[in-house]
Every structure is written in structure tokens, then in C-alpha cells.
Amino acid sequence: MRKWELSDARDLAAALSNTKIQNNLRDGLPYPYTEKDGTAYITEVLSADEDKTFAFAVTADNKVIGSIGVFRQENIHRQTGELGYCIAEEYWGKGIMTEAVKQICTYVFDKSDIIRIYAEPFAYNAASCRVLEKAGFQYEGTLRNNAMKNGKVIDMRMYSLLKTVTYI
């Protein structure tokens, strides 16, 4: 895991131009995801408030293979951050994202006043749920009929990690 660089746009585009990945992410990402789209995203996160957006490139084999970020919420949830991540399909099941989740949570808890990090994977995304569980997140419940994805109403699962929790 490291800070983004504009030169990472090509690798990011290669990782995100995959419908299997996009089917597990929120809507709004273009398909195919181009190098121009990657440059726009990286430019946005590099210019974001560093106390509200904690966004990093996930790397392996000397290239960017994914993205991870914690995004501070607002108002009464201002000490809560939402976690989001994705990884290129060829790196699924290798423990890389579990390690990245642990690293970003440690970073955010050490560098900010955030006390709770949560994630809401789609309930059908068992691999993402397992990443969170292996990283020490607790399952809090199912958010029934919580989203519309690819024309279907779907459930999401709520996971959280508290600052007071010791990492596995």
C-alpha cells in the first residue's frame, strides 16, 4: 500500500476494466475504465483533504493492482470512516487485500481521530466479507433490500472495526 502517483492510472485502468470487479462496487465507475478515468480519480484523491480522505494504491509485482480508501463521514458520524477497496481479479484469494485492510485501518487510527471504520459489501460478495472478517472486522447485521445493483434489489452486510480493537 502506498500513496497514489499519476503514473498509476494505466495500472488502475487495467485492474478496474473488469465486470467481475465492477459488479462488486458501487455504481458510477465507467466501463471500460480508461487511463483517463484513472488519472481523474488519482488527481481527485491527491487533492482531497488528508483528514477526510485516506486513499492509497494497493501494489504487488511492482505495479498497482487495486485501490483502498477510508472516507470520513460527516455530522454526528464525523469520527467514523467508510472503507472501500478493490483488487485486480488475478490477485483474488492471495491475502493481499486482507493485509491492505489491516494496514489502512492502522494508519487511519494512528493518524486521525476516527474511532470506527465500517464497510458495507454486497451480501453476495462472500470473498469481500471474508477479507473483512480476517482483518478483524465484526459483522453487525444485514441491511436488507439496501441497494439496487445491475437491476436487482440486493442486501448488504455491515461490518465495523473499532479503534480499541487489537488487530489479528
Automatic annotation (TrEMBL):
Pfam families: Acetyltransf_3 (PF13302). CDD domains: NAT_SF. One of its GO terms (molecular function) is transferase activity. Residues 7-166 form the N-acetyltransferase domain. Its EC number is 2.-.-.-. Gene3D superfamilies: 3.40.630.30. The keyword Transferase applies. Keywords: Transferase. The keyword Transferase applies. InterPro entries: Acyl_CoA_acyltransferase, GNAT_dom. PANTHER family: ACETYLTRANSFERASE-RELATED, N-ACETYLTRANSFERASE DOMAIN-CONTAINING PROTEIN. This is GNAT family protein. It comes from Anaerostipes hominis (ex Lee et al. 2021). The lineage of its organism: Bacteria, Bacillati, Bacillota, Clostridia, Lachnospirales.
